[in-house]
DNA sequence: AATGAATGAGAATTCATTCAT
DNA sequence: TATGAATGAATTCTCATTCAT
C-alpha cells in the first residue's frame, strides 16, 4: 500500500496503473482486487489514513493554557515544526494531498478536500482558543485571517517539500525548524493585524 | 479553445476526453486534430497562453520609484488587486494552473511549473527592486521570504478563487480589493521581518 | 504524379498518405481530388502507364528473323540490356511493380499482376518465335521453362535494382550490359536444356 | 498466431486489422495485447520464427563431401526439393516473406529483408563449399552468379507457389521434385559458366 | 488467498474523402 | 480550378476489472 502511495505521489493518480502497483508489490493483478475494491477506493483509503495521522499531529499542538506573546509564537513554531517534520517524513502522502490528488476522480478529490477542511477547522479552533485566552485580539474578519493563515501554511509546505517544480524528490536547504519559525513569524504578524 | 479550458478546469485533464471537447464545441473529432496536434499540445498551449497574460499583469505592477512605507503597502495591494481581479476573470485558467494541471501528463505539468517559476521570478525582482530603493531592509534570507510570500499569494489565491473544496464555481464573499489588502498586510509585515 | 510514384516506391502504398502526395506537389488536399478520383485510382493509373512503357521496351526486342545460336544469345542480351536500362531509368516505377505494389489494395495488386502477366506473355511469344524459327528445340515443358525464365529475369532485376535490402536508392556495381549478358547466358543454357 | 499469419498472407499487413485477427481467433481485442505487444511486433515475430525454420531446411542441405558433377546436380535438386516442399507446407509464411512483407511498416520490412540476406548467405556458403571441393570452377564473378542463382530460386519459388497473379491459394501443376530438378539444371548450367 | 489470462468499453489518433467558397 | 477546413468511420491500443482455477 505504501508502494501504491509512492506511485500515486510520483506519477499522479491517472498515470499510476493498477498494473504498476501490482508490479511494484510483486503480486498479481487479481490479488490487488482481493485486497482493494478498486483503484479509486485504494486512493481514498490512503488519503483517509493519512488524514488521521495528519490530524493527530495538529491535535497534539492544540493550545491549552494562556501565555505571553512569546509563548504564542513559540508554541506556533513548535506546532509548525511538528507539522513540517511530519510532512517531511510522509512526503508521498503530502504529495498526494497537496499536489496530485486534485487530478484524480471526483471521489478521490473529495477525500483530499475533506482532509484540508478538517485541517483548516483544527487551525480555526486553535486561533479561537487563543482569542478565548485573550492572546489574540478578537476581530470581525477572523475567518478571513485563518483562511489566509491556512493558505500560507499549505503554500509554504508545498514549496518547502517539493520545490518550485513540484518534484517529489526535492530537498529544501532549510531545516523544518527554520522554515517553521519564519512561517510562524509571518503568521503571528499577520494574525496580530 | 476556451471551451476546452473550462472542461480541463472542471473535470481535470484526464477526465476531459477529446470527445467532450469536440462535443462542447459542436464539431467532429477529426476537426479537433485539424486545429491541435494532440490533447496534450492543446493543454500546453492553453497554459502557455495563460502564462503570457498572467505575466503581463504582474509586469504592469513592477515597482519603478521609491516611496514611503505606505506607498509600498498601497502599491503591493494594487498589484495584488490586479492579480486577484485577473484571476477572477480567468477562473478556468487559474484552476488549470493552480489545481488541475498537476494531475496531467509530464509535459503539461512542466508547463504549469514553468508558469509558477516565472511568476516567482517576477515577484523576486519586485522585492529586489524594493530593497534597491531601500524600501525594504536587505536581509540574508530574502529568498526564503520571497518563497513564503509567493506561497502565501498562491495559497490565498487558490482558496479565494475555489474555496476549501476546490470548486470551480465557488464564489468568495470577499471582493478582490479586500483580500488583496489583507494579503498585502500579511506580506508587508512578513517581509519587514 | 511522378512525385506520387516516388513516394509509393519509397514508403509503400499504405504508408504514403494523400497528404504526403499533395505536400510534395505543393498543392492542397482538395486539388488532389480534382485530378484523381481516389488514391487507389492514382496508383492504378501509375501502374498502367508504366505497363505501357514497359511493354514498348519488350516489343522492340521481338525476334523477327532466324539466326545462329550466337545471334540468339546476342539478341537476348540486347533485349535484356534494354530492359535493365529502362528499369534503371524508371526505378520508382519498377519498385512499385516489383516490390511495393503487392502490399496495396486488391485492385492495385491486380494491376500489378496484370502487368507481369503481359510481360510473361511477351516473353512466351518471343521464345515461341525462336522455336518457330528453329533456333530452339521444341520441348514439351516450354511453359515451365518460360516460367523459370521470367522468374529469373524479374528476380535478377529486383536484386540488381534494389539490392538485398530492397533499398530504392541502391546502386549495383554491375552495369546493365554486364548483368544482362550474364543473365542471357543463364537463360540460353537453361532454355537449351 | 498461425491464423494471423494466414491473414497477413492473404490480405497483406495493412489490410489485416487487429480486429480481423482476434475475430478469426475467437478472442477479444484485449486478449491480443496480452499476447503480443503490437501488431507490428506480431508480424516481426512471425517472420523471425519463419526465418529459423527456413534456415534449418537449407542448413540440412549443406554440402559436406566432394562428388561428381552428377552428385552435384542431384544434391542441388535434393536441397531445392526440400526447399520447395517446405515452402509448399508453409505457404502463408512464404507469402509473407516473398510478397506481402514489403508492403508493411519499416521494421517488418527489415525483418523480411534480413531473412533473405541470411538465405543468400547460406547459398553463398554452399557454392563456396562446392568450389573448395573443386566441384565448381572458381571464377571472379562468383558473387554475381550467386546473386543470379538466388534471384532465380526466389523468383521460381514465388511463381510456383502463387502463380502469375500472386494468389495464395494457387496450386501449380508441377510437383516440387520436378520444379526443383528443372531449377537445379538451370542453376548448374548457369554456375558452370 | 492468489494467480494470470481474458474481457470489453472506451481512449486518442489517423486519414481518405467531401464540400462550401 | 483550387483551397483548406471539416468530417466520421475506422484503427490501434489501454486498462480497470472479472473470473475460472
From TrEMBL, chains A, B, C, D:
DNA-binding region: 17-36
Keywords attached to this entry: DNA-binding, Repressor, Transcription, Transcription regulation
Hydrolase found in the keyword field: no
Keyword Cell cycle in record: no
A GO term, aspect molecular function: DNA binding
PROSITE patterns: HTH_TETR_2
Pfam families to which the protein is assigned, alphabetical: TetR_C_2, TetR_N
Domain HTH tetR-type: 1-54
PANTHER family membership: ACREF/ENVCD OPERON REPRESSOR-RELATED, ACREF_ENVCD OPERON REPRESSOR-RELATED
UniProt protein name: TetR family transcriptional regulator
Species: Paenibacillus foliorum
Source species taxonomy: Bacteria, Bacillati, Bacillota, Bacilli, Bacillales
Amino acid at each position: 500500500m505504501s508502494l501504491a502511495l509512492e506511485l500515486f505521489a510520483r506519477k499522479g493518480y491517472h498515470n499510476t496503473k493498477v498494473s504498476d502497483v501490482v508490479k511494484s508489490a510483486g503480486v498479481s493483478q487479481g490479488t490487488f482486487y482481493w485486497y482493494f475494491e478498486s483503484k479509486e477506493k485504494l486512493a481514498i483509503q490512503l488519503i483517509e489514513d493519512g488524514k488521521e495521522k495528519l490530524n493527530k499531529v495538529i491535535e497534539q499542538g492544540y493550545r491549552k493554557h494562556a501565555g505571553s506573546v512569546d509563548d504564542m509564537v513559540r508554541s506556533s513554531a513548535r506546532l509548525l515544526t511538528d507539522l513540517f517534520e511530519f510532512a517531511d517524513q510522509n512526503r508521498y502522502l503530502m504529495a498526494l494531498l497537496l499536489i496530485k490528488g486534485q487530478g484524480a476522480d471526483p471521489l478521490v478529490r473529495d477525500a483530499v478536500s475533506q482532509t484540508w477542511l478538517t485541517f483548516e477547522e483544527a487551525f480555526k479552533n486553535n486561533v479561537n482558543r487563543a482569542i478565548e485566552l485573550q492572546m489574540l485580539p478578537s476581530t470581525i474578519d477572523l475567518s478571513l485571517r485563518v483562511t489566509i493563515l491556512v493558505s500560507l501554511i499549505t503554500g509554504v509546505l508545498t514549496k518547502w517539500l517539493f520545490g518550485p517544480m513540484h518534484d517529489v524528490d526535492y530537498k529544501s536547504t532549510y531545516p523544518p525548524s527554520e522554515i517553521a519559525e519564519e512561517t510562524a513569524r509571518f503568521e503571528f504578524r499577520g494574525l496580530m493585524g
